[in-house]
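Handoff note, outgoing to incoming analyst
You'll be picking up this chain. Sequence as last confirmed:
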Amino acid sequence: MDDILILLVFACCVAAVLGALAWLGVRGRRRGVGGEVMGPFEEMWHPAATRYRAEIRVQEERMVPLPSADAKEQTA
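Most recent structure output, in case you need it:
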């Protein structure tokens, strides 16, 4: 009986950890944040997605914002 109880407690703990990770993933996707929290787990399970996000981040940093129409009129 004690062995079954120990196994049941262990299974519940594993399920709780997996459920918490799934909840964090859904919450991060909805809010557009969470890369810091879910990043290491995503890198383990899906390294191609991590490389893709890093490339997108680099491209976003390279983009130069266009001047507004008001700025063009003031300089002319």
